[in-house]
C-alpha cells in the first residue's frame, strides 16, 4: 500500500516549495492586483452572457402559402388636410381596396403640429364626383346642369341645383329631410366647405392594413376624388396649385414586433422641393420567425427599402401622393433564442482563471528578471 502511495505521490504535477524560498516583490504585487481585477471583470462579463440568451440565425426557403400581411403605419402629412387624404391598396392578383376607412385613425393637425381633432371613423378621404342630373346620370361637359329634387318636384321642368333648393322642395311637400348626406347637392357643398375650412391644416394617419401576401402597393393619395372627377369646381381653385406631399414616417412595420427588429423607415422624413409629384418607396419584405427561449413563435417580417421621387412637371402628370411598393423575398429568416449550457459556462470560467494567471506569471517573470539583470549591470558599473 505504501509503495502505491509513493508512486501516486510522484505523479504530483504541483510540487510544493518551502515558503523560505519565496521572494516577494513590489512589481509582483502590482501584477497580482491587476490580474485579480481583470479576472473579476471577465468573470462578471461571462456571468452576464450566461444569463442572457444567445440568438441563432438560420436561412430557409419560404414555402408558406395563403398567408395575410399586416402593415402597421403612423405617417404625418403637415401640409395635407385629412379631408383630401385617402388610402388605397392593390396587388398583382387583382385585389383592390379604395378609400379604406376601417382600422385607421386620422388626426387633424394645425400649422404647429398640434392635434385639433382625432377621429376613429377611418381615413375617409372625401370625394367629389360630377353632379347628379335629374335624369339619373352624371353631368357631362357642355351639358346644362339640372339637379334632381329627389321626388319633390312640382313639375317636370323643376330643378334643384343646391342643397337649399332640395330642402325647400321637401318643405313644400311636407316631407322631412332626415339624412342630407345622401343628397348629392348637400354632400358636394359639405365637401367644398370642409376643404375650405381645413385648407391650412395637416393630417396624421395611423392604423393598419390587412393585405394578401403577394406583391402589391398601398398609397396615400391627396385629392384623389377631385382629380378623378375631372370637373371644374370654382370653389376648389386653391387645389390647382398642386399638393405638398412633405411627410414624416413615424412608424412603418410589417407584422408583429419582435426583439431586436429594426424598421429602417421609422423616423424617416422627406421635404418636398418646389414642384409636386409622387414619392415612391420600394420595399423588399423578408419573412421572419422569431422563437423565444420558451419556444413561442412570432411570425413577422423585416424589410429593406429604396426610394425615388417622380417629378410632377412631366406629361402625363402623375397622381400626387406617397406610394409604398412591396415585394417578398423567397428566403425566410429564423431567429432562435438559446441558453448556454452550464458546462460551457464553467469551462469558460476555468479558461479565464488559467489564462489570466499564466499571462500575469509571464509578465511578472519578465519584469523580475529584467530588473535583476539591470541591477547586476549597474553593480558592474556598466550603467551610471
Structure, explained:
- The structure is a single chain.
- The chain is an alpha+beta fold.
- It folds into three domains: 24-52 and 340-376; 54-116 and 203-224 and 245-338; 129-200, no CATH class.
- The chain is 27% helix and 29% strand.
- Strands 1, 3, 4, 8, 11, 12, 13 and 14 form an eight-stranded mixed β-sheet that branches.
- A hairpin with a 5-residue loop joins strand 5 (104-109) and strand 6 (115-119).
- The protein starts with a helix and ends in a 5-residue tail after the last helix.
- It comes from Sorghum bicolor (Sorghum).
- This is Endoplasmic reticulum vesicle transporter C-terminal domain-containing protein.
- It is found in: Membrane.
- Residues 8-97 form the Endoplasmic reticulum vesicle transporter N-terminal domain.
* Shape assignment: elongated
What is the β-strand count?
Answer: 14
What is the total domain count? 3
The share of residues in extended strands comes to 25-35%
Q: Give the averaged pLDDT, no decimals.
A: 80
Instruction: Report the order of strands and helices.
Output: HHEEEEEEHHEEHEEEEEEH
Low-confidence stretches: 122-128, 225-238
How much helix is in the residues? 25-40%
Question: How much is the radius of gyration in Å?
Answer: 38 Å
Major β-sheet annotation = 8 strands, mixed
Protein name: Endoplasmic reticulum vesicle transporter C-terminal domain-containing protein
InterPro entries: Erv, Erv_C, Erv_N
Pfam families: COPIIcoated_ERV (PF07970), ERGIC_N (PF13850)
Main location: membrane
Amino acid at each position: 500500500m505504501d509503495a502505491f502511495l509513493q508512486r501516486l505521490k510522484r505523479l504530483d504535477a504541483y510540487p510544493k516549495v518551502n515558503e523560505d524560498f519565496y521572494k516577494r516583490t513590489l512589481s509582483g504585487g502590482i501584477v497580482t492586483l491587476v490580474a485579480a481585477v481583470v479576472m473579476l471583470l471577465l468573470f462578471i462579463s461571462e456571468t452576464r452572457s450566461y444569463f442572457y440568451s444567445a440568438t441563432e440565425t438560420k436561412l430557409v426557403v419560404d414555402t408558406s402559402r395563403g398567408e395575410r400581411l399586416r402593415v402597421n403605419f403612423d405617417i404625418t402629412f403637415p401640409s395635407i388636410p385629412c379631408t383630401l387624404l385617402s388610402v388605397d391598396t392593390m396587388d398583382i392578383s387583382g385585389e383592390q381596396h379604395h378609400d379604406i376607412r376601417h382600422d385607421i385613425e386620422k388626426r387633424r393637425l394645425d400649422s404647429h403640429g398640434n392635434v385639433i381633432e382625432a377621429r376613429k371613423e377611418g381615413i375617409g378621404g372625401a370625394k367629389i364626383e360630377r353632379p347628379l342630373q335629374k335624369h339619373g346620370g352624371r353631368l357631362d361637359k357642355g351639358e346644362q346642369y339640372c339637379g334632381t329634387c329627389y321626388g319633390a318636384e312640382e313639375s317636370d321642368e323643376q330643378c334643384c341645383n343646391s342643397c337649399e333648393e332640395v330642402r325647400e322642395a321637401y318643405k313644400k311637400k311636407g316631407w322631412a329631410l332626415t339624412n342630407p348626406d345622401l343628397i348629392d347637392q348637400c354632400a358636394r357643398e359639405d365637401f367644398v366647405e370642409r376643404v375650405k375650412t381645413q385648407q391650412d391644416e395637416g393630417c396624421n394617419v395611423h392604423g393598419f392594413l390587412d393585405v394578401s401576401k403577394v406583391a402589391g402597393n398601398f398609397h396615400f393619395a391627396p385629392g384623389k376624388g377631385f382629380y378623378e372627377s375631372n370637373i371644374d369646381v370654382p370653389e376648389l381653385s386653391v387645389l390647382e396649385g398642386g399638393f405638398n406631399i412633405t411627410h414624416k414616417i413615424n412608424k412603418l412595420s410589417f407584422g408583429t414586433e419582435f426583439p431586436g427588429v429594426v424598421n429602417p423607415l421609422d423616423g424617416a422624413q422627406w421635404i418636398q422641393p418646389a414642384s409636386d409629384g409622387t414619392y415612391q418607396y420600394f420595399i423588399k419584405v423578408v419573412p421572419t420567425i422569431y422563437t423565444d427561449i420558451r419556444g413561442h413563435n412570432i411570425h413577422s417580417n423585416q424589410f429593406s427599402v429604396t426610394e425615388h421621387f417622380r417629378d410632377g412637371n412631366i406629361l402625363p402628370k402623375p397622381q400626387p401622393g406617397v406610394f409604398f411598393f412591396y415585394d417578398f423575398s423567397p428566403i425566410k429568416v429564423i431567429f432562435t433564442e438559446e441558453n448556454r449550457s452550464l458546462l460551457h459556462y464553467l469551462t469558460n470560467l476555468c479558461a479565464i482563471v488559467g489564462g489570466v494567471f499564466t499571462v500575469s506569471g509571464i509578465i511578472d517573470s519578465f519584469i523580475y528578471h529584467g530588473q535583476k539583470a539591470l541591477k547586476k549591470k549597474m553593480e558592474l558599473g556598466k550603467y551610471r
